[in-house]
């Protein structure tokens, strides 16, 4: 398999496969989205179309499930999410093959991530950005994909991070058809699981993925085929890949009313968060220095602890791996069946992790991007 | 010996027969398939193999020790993942496979064959040890026999697979892995899948001895051809049979059960000619020994006893005889006689590995598995195992009945082989008990459906099934679903859940594929998944422009809103076009007329009740067009009014019908008459449904205005003006009719 040029003229931020893995969409700071198709005969990726989709860097791209048609969503620093639909009547590479269905521009800050929910939840999209608000949109009328309704907002960060500080946000839906609607939301160095209460259809905090010591760069909820529990992986600026095991708390199966206000955080300000993050850190190693430019949402989230007392999920850190040579872990991604986890780090290496029979994750192979 | 063996080749074991593979200077252990990816080393931290992202080192995106914002995305297809950098001037994508995934056609064939074999086991897939009631001993024997035969076939299939790829230079590492697997399997077959068959004792013993010889010789391929040639090629005048190396070679061949080759060596050395001329006693003894070796009793323990008795007699006779040859040569011959007589110290002395020694105990000492552990202990005390070779430790574990421990080793070499081995071992009941002896609870983690509770075999079979689902090769999907379906370990509900999550990912492309998916849904009662499949099909066909087929699938998916919407869109398109759509299928559906192009059966299979209902406005519109084109104005007016009066006609379509038909064809033309009833019905409809504030109606009016031919602009710019104009024209028509 040979590498191929995307044709982007600026940073490539995100890559996303369609449901069957035969198309890949890329997005870039050059404000363009490109879609490539895997040619069956040559087994090469061929450019299907490229178009200017936003007025600023596009940082996230995602495909909807094919039962809703061929639809992609893009999120940009221009504070908008756009939904696109393929028009097969238009020629490939015409720049007109993808038509915009709608623009969602409720965000007050740059957007970082937009992800479609798994198809059994309907045509639904979550996004998060610099304003620290999780927004969930739904296409309530399946026959009219131009009409999207903002159905849920959750204030994950009370105060947006200061613009001069590095920040990162990412989200990942629970893909299981047999679980309550859940989404993992990572803001700065905090990872929170929101869960929909079936009684009032509102989202509540159901748990936290603890232990991150830096910005969370990537989160990925594993497909749980054949498993009774869930796995979530995170990649962090502190150089660690973390794998969490999530199970239902059988003693507290329902979401208690005491967590009803837990989606939003209390009133702290951005600089306060940042200061607290540094002052809490007594270590002097490289990792702590790295975090100095990183705001933390610790403070604001700690204040919601009372509301987290009745979390319906048991979350256990299965393992944390610092195999990427102390470099940031930029991405984590599970395979189709949730049996292999990939982590890619600043050390230019992809590590493929597989759970052994005794449920320990071991690195089964390494793919290096460095010359040898 | 019946024929003369003159050259080295004839003296060797048949290397091809054993298919031994070895790359000089490389140890096969721990290497993984690198067909498309270059293994460049071993990771210091984890010990995992390291592969290059690209085939060409110069194409690697980062320089040596250079860091970068490097990302990786896994794909549904395990061979098509993507790596990329979010770095300035690095805008390439790097497709990458998961190392170790074999997507060759040969592998597919191997997997299919092995699955077929496992599937055919039926009730023998489950081990059951009856503890109460009438214990059916014959069933147990039959069960073991079936499994032994299955294991034999399994090893044969693996052998075929290796044969099919062994000449591919890209697959050297893969072949090495499989060779290691087959060595482990040969040992497992010898120890656990031979002796407990239905067949008689002699068949079992023959099978056992052959299997033992196969295992030992295939494991390392010793002795090498070059080594033998080196022994026979001498620069001095010393006869080869006077050298220690020669006798070591002969004894090594004997230890490994390579009788033919050992006797060939003796013949080639011409020792018999020498002894006949020098020492008749030695010649007779060696001749008798050769004759005994030619008749080694492979098939019967009883005959073996007699044979050994004769060998011991021969050895005793020789040691008590005065011979004309003295010194080393006599010692060599005596050692060989002691060795084939089963002398422990000689067996250990002449063997160079533990497995050679272990096999030799069976061949020459006492051929019973009851002494297996003692033999192993003795062998290992003299020749420790080589820890750098995975298979050696695995074989020791097999002999020690620790079957669980070999499964991870097999898993690291080839998942299909590991899963099948585990399944067969589980069925045979030779996997260690996973229940805690004291508490009778599971020792493992109990919350994993596919793992400890259900055993290693279940875990590996499911892992294997999942791996197959990640293959691009869709022909392996039925195997994956089959493996999940026939697994004897999980409950039906777990299987159902698993299949329901996996099935929608099937990369269908033909009608047969779809039929298969739906058949699986039907079998496992997965209506929601069937609906999802129909919905995916509906969307796909819609995107391809096959509207009717798309509607059929959406109907079957229960997406009636979408079907309704599609029907109205067809209606809208036809109104704008001013004539029926040029769609043979659609028009056949609404007229219910089959023809040569659309046979009746096809039509029946296409049209659902939902479609009949939702397409009915279009059907009326179609009739309206027919009447209009035939000049039947009264009839067409009645059809138009029927549409306008339709209870479920959306407001904006009422407007559309008014602007496109009622107004231009009837109201805005003086010479076309409307009867009073029609006028009143029209007024009634307009009063009821024409809503000038309705957003959709406003948008529709804008579209109509846009599409209005510039030469015939008869519509006012505003919807409310149009409303007034229509009402005015209707009043005039009413007056005309009255007058």
UniProtKB/TrEMBL annotation, chain A:
Write down the superkingdom of origin: Eukaryota
* Record carries keyword Nucleus: yes
Q: Which UniProt keywords apply?
A: mRNA transport, Nuclear pore complex, Nucleus, Protein transport, Repeat, Translocation, Transport, WD repeat
Q: Which Pfam families does this chain map to?
A: WD40
Repeat listed as a keyword = yes
Q: PANTHER family from the entry?
A: NUCLEAR PORE COMPLEX PROTEIN SEC13 / SEH1 FAMILY MEMBER, NUCLEOPORIN SEH1
Stated name of the protein: Anaphase-promoting complex subunit 4 WD40 domain-containing protein
Q: Which organism is it from?
A: Vanderwaltozyma polyspora (strain ATCC 22028 / DSM 70294 / BCRC 21397 / CBS 2163 / NBRC 10782 / NRRL Y-8283 / UCD 57-17)
Q: What is the taxonomic lineage of the source species? A: Eukaryota, Fungi, Dikarya, Ascomycota, Saccharomycotina
UniProtKB/TrEMBL annotation, chain B:
- Compartments, as annotated in UniProt: Nucleus, Nuclear pore complex
Q: Which organism is it from?
A: Vanderwaltozyma polyspora (strain ATCC 22028 / DSM 70294 / BCRC 21397 / CBS 2163 / NBRC 10782 / NRRL Y-8283 / UCD 57-17)
GO cellular component, alphabetical, reads: nuclear membrane; nuclear pore outer ring
Task: Could you list this entry's UniProt keywords, alphabetically sorted.
Answer: Membrane, mRNA transport, Nuclear pore complex, Nucleus, Protein transport, Translocation, Transport
Name listed for the protein in its UniProt record: Nuclear pore complex protein Nup85
A single GO BP term for this record reads: mRNA export from nucleus
Record bears the keyword Membrane? yes
**Subunit annotation:** Component of the nuclear pore complex (NPC).
């Amino acid at each position: 398999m040979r590498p191929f040029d995307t044709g982007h003229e600026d940073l490539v931020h995100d890559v996303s496969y369609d449901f069957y893995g035969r198309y890949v969409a890329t997005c870039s700071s050059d404000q363009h989205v490109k879609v490539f198709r895997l040619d069956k005969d040559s087994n090469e990726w061929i450019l299907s179309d490229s178009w200017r989709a936003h007025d600023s860097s596009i940082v996230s791209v995602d495909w909807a499930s094919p039962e809703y048609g061929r639809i992609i969503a893009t999120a940009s620093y221009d504070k908008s999410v756009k939904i696109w639909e393929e028009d097969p009547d238009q020629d490939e590479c015409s720049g007109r093959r993808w038509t915009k269905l709608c623009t969602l521009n409720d965000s007050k800050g740059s957007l970082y991530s937009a992800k479609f929910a798994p198809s059994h939840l309907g045509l639904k999209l979550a996004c998060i950005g610099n304003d620290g608000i999780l927004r969930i949109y739904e296409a309530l009328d399946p026959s009219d994909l131009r009409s999207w309704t903002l159905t849920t907002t959750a204030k994950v960060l009370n105060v947006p991070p200061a613009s001069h500080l590095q920040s990162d946000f990412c989200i990942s839906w629970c893909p299981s058809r047999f679980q309550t609607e859940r989404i993992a939301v990572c803001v700065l160095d905090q990872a929170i699981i929101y869960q929909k209460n079936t009684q009032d259809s509102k989202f509540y905090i159901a748990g936290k993925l603890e232990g991150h010591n830096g910005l969370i760069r990537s989160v990925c909820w594993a497909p749980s085929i054949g498993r009774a529990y869930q796995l979530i992986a995170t990649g962090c600026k502190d150089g660690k890949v973390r794998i969490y095991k999530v199970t239902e708390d059988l003693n507290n199966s329902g979401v208690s009313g005491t967590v009803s206000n837990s989606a939003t955080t209390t009133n702290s300000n951005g600089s306060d968060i940042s200061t607290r993050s540094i002052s809490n850190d007594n270590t002097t190693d490289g990792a702590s220095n790295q975090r100095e430019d990183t705001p933390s949402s610790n403070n604001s989230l700690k204040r919601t602890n009372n509301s987290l007392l009745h979390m319906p999920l048991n979350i256990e850190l299965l393992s944390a791996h610092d195999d990427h040579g102390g470099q940031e872990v930029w991405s984590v991604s599970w395979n189709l069946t949730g049996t292999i986890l990939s982590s890619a780090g600043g050390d230019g290496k992809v590590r493929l992790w597989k759970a052994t029979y005794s449920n320990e994750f071991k690195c089964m192979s390494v793919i290096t991007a460095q010359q040898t | 010996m019946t024929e003369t063996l003159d050259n080295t080749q004839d003296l060797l074991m048949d290397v091809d027969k054993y298919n031994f593979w070895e790359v000089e200077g490389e140890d096969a252990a721990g290497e993984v398939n690198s067909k498309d990816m270059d293994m460049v080393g071993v990771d210091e931290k984890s010990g995992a193999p390291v592969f290059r992202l690209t085939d060409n080192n110069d194409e690697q995106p980062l320089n040596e020790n250079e860091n970068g914002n490097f990302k990786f995305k896994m794909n549904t297809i395990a061979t098509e993942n993507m790596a990329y950098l979010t770095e300035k001037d690095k805008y390439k994508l790097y497709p990458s496979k998961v190392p170790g995934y074999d997507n060759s056609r040969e592998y597919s064939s191997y997997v299919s064959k092995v699955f077929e074999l496992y599937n055919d086991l039926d009730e023998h897939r489950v081990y059951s040890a009856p503890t109460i009631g009438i214990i059916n001993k014959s069933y147990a024997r039959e069960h073991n026999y079936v499994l032994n035969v299955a294991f034999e076939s399994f090893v044969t299939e693996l052998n075929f697979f290796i044969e099919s790829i062994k000449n591919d230079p890209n697959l050297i590492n893969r072949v090495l892995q499989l060779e290691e697997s087959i060595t482990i399997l040969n040992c497992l077959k010898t120890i656990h899948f031979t002796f407990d068959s239905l067949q008689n004792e002699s068949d079992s013993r023959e099978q056992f001895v052959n299997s033992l010889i196969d295992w030992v010789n295939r494991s390392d391929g010793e002795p090498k051809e070059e080594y033998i040639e080196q022994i026979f090629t001498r620069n001095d005048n010393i006869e080869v049979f006077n050298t220690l190396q020669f006798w070591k070679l002969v004894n090594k061949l004997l230890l490994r059960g390579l009788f033919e080759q050992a006797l060939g060596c003796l013949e080639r050395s011409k020792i018999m000619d020498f002894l006949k001329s020098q020492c008749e006693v030695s010649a007779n003894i060696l001749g008798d020994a050769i004759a005994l070796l030619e008749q080694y009793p492979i098939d019967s323990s009883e005959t073996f006893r007699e044979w050994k008795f004769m060998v011991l007699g021969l050895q005793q006779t020789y040691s008590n005889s005065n011979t004309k040859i003295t010194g080393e040569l006599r010692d060599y011959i005596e050692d060989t006689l002691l060795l084939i007589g089963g002398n422990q110290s000689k067996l250990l002395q002449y063997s160079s590995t533990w497995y050679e020694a272990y096999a030799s105990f069976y061949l020459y000492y006492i051929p019973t598995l009851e002494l297996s552990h003692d033999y192993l202990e003795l062998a290992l005390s003299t020749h420790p195992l080589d820890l750098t070779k995975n298979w050696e430790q695995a074989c020791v574990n097999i002999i020690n009945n620790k079957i669980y421990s070999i499964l991870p080793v097999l898993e690291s070499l080839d998942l299909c082989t590991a899963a099948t081995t585990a399944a067969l071992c589980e069925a045979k009941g030779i996997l260690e008990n996973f229940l805690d002896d004291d508490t009778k609870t599971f020792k493992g983690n109990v919350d994993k459906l596919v793992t400890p509770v259900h055993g290693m075999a279940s875990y590996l079979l499911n892992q294997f099934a999942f791996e197959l689902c990640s293959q691009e090769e869709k022909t392996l999907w039925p195997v994956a679903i089959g493996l999940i379906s026939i697994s004897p370990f999980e409950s039906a509900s777990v299987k159902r859940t698993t299949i329901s999550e996996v099935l929608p990912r099937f990369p269908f492309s033909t009608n047969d594929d779809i039929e298969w998916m739906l058949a699986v849904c039907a079998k496992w009662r997965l209506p929601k998944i069937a609906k999802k499949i129909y919905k995916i099909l509906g969307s796909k066909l819609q995107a391809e422009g096959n509207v009717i087929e798309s509607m059929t699938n959406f109907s079957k998916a229960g997406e009636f809103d979408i079907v309704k919407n599609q029907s109205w869109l067809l209606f809208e398109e036809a109104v704008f076009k001013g004539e029926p759509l040029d769609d043979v299928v659609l028009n056949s559906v609404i007229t219910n007329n089959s023809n040569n192009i659309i046979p009746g059966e096809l039509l029946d299979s296409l049209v659902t009740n939902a479609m009949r209902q939702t397409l009915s406005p279009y059907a009326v519109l179609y009739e309206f067009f027919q009447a209009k084109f035939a000049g039947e104005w009264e009839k067409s007016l009645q059809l138009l009014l029927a549409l306008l009066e339709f209870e479920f006609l959306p407001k904006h379509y009422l407007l559309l019908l008014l602007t496109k038909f009622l107004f231009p064809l009837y109201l805005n033309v003086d010479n076309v008459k409307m009867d009073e009833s029609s006028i009143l019905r029209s007024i009634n409809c307009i009063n009821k449904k024409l809503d000038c504030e309705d957003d959709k109606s406003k948008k529709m009016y804008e579209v109509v205005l846009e599409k209005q031919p510039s030469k015939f602009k008869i519509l006012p710019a505003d919807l409310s003006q149009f409303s007034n104009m229509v009402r005015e024209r209707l009043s005039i028509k009413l007056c005309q009719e009255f007058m």
